[in-house]
Amino acid sequence: MKAVHLVGARPQFIKLAALMGKLKGFSEVLVHSGQHYDYQMSQVFFDTLGIRKPDYHLGVGSGSHAEQTGKAMIEFEKVCIAEKPAVILIYGDCNTTLAGALVGAKLQIQVAHVEAGVRSYDWSMPEEFNRVLADHCSSLLFAPTAGAVENLGKEGIIRGVHNVGDIMYDSFLKYSKSPSNVMKSLSLKPGFVLVTLHRPSNVDSKEKLAAIFGELSKLEKPVVFPMHPRTRKSLERFGIPLGKIKVIEPVGYVEMLGLERESSLIITDSGGVQREAYFSEKPCIVLRDSTEWPELLGQTVVLLKNIRELKVAASRMMGQYCTFEKGFFGDGKTGEKIAGILRVSIK
Ligand code: UD1
Ligand code: UDP
User: Fold this and answer.
1) Residue to probe by mutation, ligand 1, list 37, 41, 68, 94, most atoms within 8 Å of CB
2) Ligand 1 center to residue 90 CA distance, Å?
3) What are 92-123's pLDDT values in tens digits?
4) Which of 78, 81, 103, 126 lies at a C-alpha separation of 20 to 30 Å from 194?
5) What is the homologous superfamily of the domain 2-166+330-345 according to CATH?
């Protein structure tokens, strides 16, 4: 029996690393959509997380939502017709995820969604459409939290739902002890503020991005910012000065975990990074109006809607040791649980 994994964007490679090769009883086919393609956004994860070379690369690249999703669908459909998999595994909430879900549903191939049921209820996010549509095309829904199971229930999705925990927690546990020389190579001392931003709501508007950079410059601690290419392109296009912020290329996953570990505060709009802040017990300011991970609120994460309040919020949270409830995201054995369920569910 054949299982096809479809991935294409940075967080999907990290999730895949915790599952690929675990599906006993299946031959696994790996498809890369090509949504992310810079070395530091794609190949670095294959080289450092032991993911093998994809069997197919769809060459989708960047483009509008319709271009990206449409191109991925056209190419992925060809792969599925040729390979005839018993199941397609899709991950998270990117355009690549949606493309895989639609292709599978229309070819009547079972779709298994890893990270199902996650909702921000913010329809200004393209990911919210991807999540909802992907879930409604899936027959196996691997929910990361009890809240995600509830969300699915509210939409009438009950069959095929399994609370397996968060696959990102598996990856975190697997790689968080790996040695990294990132501190040395960047000449960093512990205690800095780590920033990642890539959401259109923060980085696609000149006023918003300039305001964020202005406020980051006021922070007392050094700020280290591994920058997503979308954000770098906006900064260059808008001519926003970097000030004293240490902007670096995106880093590999092990290096990123190393930076998170040594930081005193994390500021982000990333879904993955806000969970990693919780896993690594770091205070975290999320520069968004909503989060699809409400479990984190009142724990390690606060949402900051008004960027002018960043300095005050940062001083309050900086270096604070987070005491909080644990266990919202399972036990780090999500990959094994998914493999077990696939084994008995896919005939
Ligand atoms: C995508 C996902 C988002 C996810 C993020 C993870 C969608 C709608 N969005 O956002 O949910 O959180 O990936 O990082 O699927 N670019 C490069 N090199 C690359 C990749 C992108 O230069 O390797 C630039 C291009 O200018 C591109 C822009 O980044 O237009 C945005 O890339 P895209 O894949 O469309 O969306 P992300 O912002 O990366
Ligand atoms: N990440 C990384 N290098 C970086 C920035 C992020 O390896 O320079 C990792 C991060 O540790 C997390 C994942 O990428 O595991 C999050 O991806 P991203 O923020 O791009 O997307 P999101 O999770 O918001 O969909």
Assistant:
1) 94
2) 17
3) 999 999 999 999 999 999 999 999 999 999 99
4) 126
5) Glycogen Phosphorylase B; (3.40.50.2000)
